Amino acid sequence: MFEQINSQSLALGKSYADTFVKAQGLALAGFERITELNLKTFEERIKASVDFWSEAAEVRDLDGAKAIWPKGVQLAKENAEKFYANTQEVLGVSLKTSEAIGALAKGSFETTNETITKQVNAAKKATGAR
């Protein structure tokens, strides 16, 4: 009897360990995608800022400052829009990752529940109890 309980416990532990390893893989993949999105956005925005400030450094008079002012405003607007869009993409990746991990956990719990229910019913039948 103890051997049966131990084997069931080991099988249950293995099942949960496999599920946790899969969940960790999903989480790491999501984190990798989020990092990739953030780095790409920051790289683009830094390049745009460097280009703007390189051009702004060449301004020597008031007319040059008047000409570059709209470009500075446009840069600020683009930065805000790009960072907002990046935030939305990151949120989407986070939600998809969370849903995948949730579905994985739910499947694991349902499988465990079915297995335990079958074993309990088999034990009831074996002992003649109702």
From TrEMBL:
Domain of life: Bacteria
Domain Phasin: 11-106
Alphabetical list of InterPro entries matching this protein: Phasin
Protein name: Phasin family protein
UniProt organism field: Dokdonella ginsengisoli
